[in-house]
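Hi V.,

Quick status before I head out on leave. The structure for the redesign project is tokenized and pasted below; the design run finished overnight.
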């Protein structure tokens, strides 16, 4: 994306975010940037003000745009948000001096096929396949066309390395250093009895793995697909194929960005 001095600012409706956006806009204008009132797909940068949830919402609302993105954190400690509101001046100095790197992260893509059509869903953190209305579900899980298990339980969560610290971690999955690109399949309340056998820990797969999930016939109308918290309800789902997308989310990183520092601060 060429540097054309157009910047998108997207913020949630908390007073802190609105005030932060007002200050940021004033500073950008003083630096001769144009701040668009509507989302501009030709912009050189998108700045999202809020927490991790707001950051994910921007990607979903605008279709995972091919524009570098950075978050200013007005929520809890954010994994996607690089800048604190009191560091805006420092951030702008670094941005203007081009003292940053761009991390390209592949989201996960699901092709959800029903008896009538196929629909796509995308997740930066994860895609969850679970029982609708709290039903236990039974799923056949294939990796690269090999059946690896018949799962029974609440559902399964397929996470990117980036999403490993989110719902995946709360569900007993492992934290993955973002320098390693993997897919992680984490069971949600797996049933292990005389009748049903499911893996009880996460399974880690290579970045090019293709995962296929088929619900048992009688559960075709009882599953829901959730991508980064967004629910997709469809009838007669016969299979879901998941793999890392070729799309890239371009995260702008400043010099002092430290993944493990955030992990320790948030979880220990
Ligand atoms: P949300 O309220 O926007 O987010 C729920 C929590 O997940 C927030 O504390 C959020 O951090 C945190 N989070 C999101 N992405 C993260 C990441 N990559 N690493 C560490 N923490 C992260 O909820 P939502 O809009 O429904 O869904 C968005 C995301 O929430 C989903 O992608 C899912 O991963 C996560 N979620 C977690 C659980 C759980 O842990 N039991 C359940 C449902 C959904 P901030 O406070 O910084 O926003």
């Amino acid at each position: 994306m060429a540097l054309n001095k157009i910047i998108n600012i997207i913020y949630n409706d908390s007073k802190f975010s609105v005030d932060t956006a007002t200050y940021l806009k004033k500073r950008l204008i003083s630096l001769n940037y144009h701040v668009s009132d509507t989302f501009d797909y030709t912009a050189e940068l998108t700045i999202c003000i809020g927490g991790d949830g707001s950051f994910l919402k921007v990607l979903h609302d605008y279709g995972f745009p091919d524009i570098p993105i950075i978050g200013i954190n007005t929520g809890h400690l954010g994994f996607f948000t690089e800048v604190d509101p009191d560091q805006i001046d420092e951030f702008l100095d670094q941005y203007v001096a081009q003292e940053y790197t761009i991390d390209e992260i592949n989201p996960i893509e699901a092709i959800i096929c029903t008896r009538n059509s196929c629909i796509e869903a995308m997740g930066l953190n994860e895609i969850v396949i679970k029982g609708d209305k709290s039903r236990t579900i039974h799923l056949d899980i294939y990796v690269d066309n090999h059946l690896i298990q018949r799962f029974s339980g609440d559902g399964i969560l397929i996470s990117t390395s980036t999403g490993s610290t989110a719902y995946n971690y709360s569900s007993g999955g492992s934290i993955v250093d973002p320098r390693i690109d993997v897919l992680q399949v984490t069971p949600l309340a797996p049933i292990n009895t005389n009748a049903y056998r499911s893996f009880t820990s996460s399974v880690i797969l290579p970045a090019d793995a293709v995962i296929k999930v088929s619900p048992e016939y009688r559960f075709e109308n009882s599953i829901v697909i959730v991508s980064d918290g967004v629910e997709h309800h469809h009838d007669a789902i016969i299979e879901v194929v998941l793999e890392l997308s070729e799309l890239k989310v371009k995260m702008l990183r400043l010099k002092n960005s430290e993944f493990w520092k955030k992990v320790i601060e948030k979880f220990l």
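Above is the designed sequence. The helical segments are 15-30, 52-61, 88-96, 167-170, 259-267.

G. will cover questions while I'm gone.

Best,
W.
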